[in-house]
Write a structure and sequence with these properties.
GNAT_dom, globular, transferase, Aminopeptidase, alpha+beta, 35% helix, seven-stranded mixed sheet, 6 helices, disordered N terminus, 173 residues
Length: 173
């Protein structure tokens, strides 16, 4: 038993969170591509997320390998709201609570000091994301409200499922 616990602790100790850099852009693109049903953005788009939004984005790495990423930014018209663009976790890390730990890391960032709300969009059938954000709201002791924001026909020409806008908050920092 002790060996098993020690191995678990050693594995957990190698996981670290940090701000992304441009050097993470390509690895992020590959991680997203290997994680359906996520939308694969261009490498250039990921480079912008890793640089322009580095203060509100989170890289999770284990032994130097990118195993998780959250792309997020403060909404310009709502400086008290952080918008989570995308959450991705490597297959090897799923089911371990990594996504929720990264969300908590986002709101602890100095750039989020004034943030009281988190928003994101999720397709109605993405059960894993719904469970993640409901659990996150519960952990913060706050509400999660949602409504359809972008509609399949009106906004995506029938080529993409509708996206629900979720709003979590208010929460204390």
């Amino acid at each position: 038993m002790l060996k098993s616990n020690s191995a678990t602790q050693a594995t957990a100790a190698t996981l670290r969170f940090r701000q992304p850099t441009a050097e993470d852009g390509y690895a992020l693109n590959q991680l997203v591509a290997a994680s359906p049903p996520l939308d694969t953005n261009s490498v250039y788009c990921n480079l912008l997320h890793c640089t322009h939004f580095a203060e509100t984005a989170v890289v999770a790495e284990e032994d130097g390998k990118l195993v998780g990423f959250i792309s997020a930014h403060i909404i310009p018209a709502k400086p008290n709201t952080v918008f989570v663009w995308q959450v991705v976790v490597d297959k090897s890390q799923r089911g371990k609570g990594l996504a929720k730990k990264m969300l908590k890391e986002v709101i602890k960032r100095p750039a989020c000091a004034q943030v009281k709300y988190m928003e994101t969009t999720i397709t109605p059938d993405n059960e894993a994301s719904w469970a993640l954000f409901r659990s996150f709201a519960r952990d913060l002791g706050t509400e999660l409200n949602h409504s359809i924001w972008f509609e399949k026909e009106a906004h995506f020409g029938g080529q993409h499922d509708s996206e629900a806008l979720l709003c979590i908050g208010p929460f204390a920092q």
